[in-house]
């Protein structure tokens, strides 16, 4: 993959862009017309200051937010959308055309439609229902990184409705460039594109990999999957016959090593792998499956073969199971929040086929989707920011959390692209 850097700041050009808790127009007051010129790399969003720090655990001071910004990935909704969508996703990243064609084929197989936008419509409706049920007056505005409705449109909508303080919930639970920093960069880009820097503040809830609301659906899924295998195959002993594979998106090993705060050592896979391992262990324990063998595996790698990505691949891991005496596999899409294309194709088509080829019974566990615990958990994540809940009172299922409200310096660097302006973090 070419180390292209289209319009981004170089790795040696640290920037500081952070929407502030102070200095924004009050709710209901029409914000000034957008006037700011495009930001130069390294520029500071007008009106930005360092984030407030209310404690050693990096918990932010309370903010009376106007609205929730639901930040999605976006996906195509017809055959004509597929290539433009893929170009959006890979813009500036040097993904070769053959790879785009390969991925286009996955979408074409399903009529050019990814279910991800429909999932986010459902999630938005579920969040609205949960908020209404709790008597909380916080509108939800939805914007995607790569497809309509785009982030820019969401920010324009926020501005038109007089909202100046947004708390973002991205549909991505772990720390890494692709799952955290890239959303934060896209918020900064969208403020620049719309000229709303200094007018609209965007903060982001902490990475929620170990929030009980995100973990609970996987616990339920693993428990049910093992029960199903036991019911279908009476002779099965799950402690020897079944292996649970926790699957997440592979990322370049250089990105993985830089995931999480630069000053916290997480080993080779960085915070990204450490978070998945910690959550998987909790899921197994809470599912009452502490004695069942399990592994963390990766899927959906791209990039040139010469570039190392996290391994093992889910298909390679499945292929090795019969030699270890396993008769069945449970696949847990631990890295994903909904059953989108990466799940539908890479797991439900490819991994399931691999399992069948190797004579293994296989069950794929559902993603959180709109599970009530997950939806309630997302609302709780917003409320802990509204209230400035102390870290000690914040729910977290692993020893790694609760994660930071504002990303630490150097967090989730993409070494190929360098640091670009990003919100909700301390630069670079
Ligand atoms: C960590 C991670 C998540 C999980 C966090 C999160 O959920 O955000 C995620 C999610 C997703 N990834 C998705 C789709 C794609 N990802 C791509 C490319 C890449 N993903 C990467 C990482 C991740 N990706 C990386 C390191 C690349 C290489 C290129 C680069 O450096 O940017 C490509 C380009 C072609 C290719 O290279 O495969 C596509 C089409 C969809 C939408 C599915 C749908 O449409 O239903 C979703 C939810
Ligand atoms: Fe991806």
UniProtKB/TrEMBL annotation:
Leading EC class: lyase
Presence of the UniProt keyword Lyase in the record: yes
Stretches the record annotates as Disordered: 26-57
Record's subcellular location: Cytoplasm
EC number(s) from the headed UniProt entry: 4.99.1.9
Reaction equation(s) it catalyzes: Fe-coproporphyrin III + 2 H(+) = coproporphyrin III + Fe(2+)
List of residues binding Fe(2+): 249, 342
Record keywords: Cytoplasm, Heme biosynthesis, Iron, Lyase, Metal-binding, Porphyrin biosynthesis
Low complexity bias (residue ranges): 37-48
InterPro entries: Ferrochelatase, Ferrochelatase_C, Ferrochelatase_N
Thylakoid found in the keyword field: no
Binding site for Fe-coproporphyrin III: 114, 183
Classification via Pfam families: Ferrochelatase (PF00762)
Pathway noted in the entry: Porphyrin-containing compound metabolism; protoheme biosynthesis
Function: Involved in coproporphyrin-dependent heme b biosynthesis. Catalyzes the insertion of ferrous iron into coproporphyrin III to form Fe-coproporphyrin III.
Family of the protein in this entry: Belongs to the ferrochelatase family.
Descriptive protein name: Coproporphyrin III ferrochelatase
UniProt source species: Agromyces tropicus
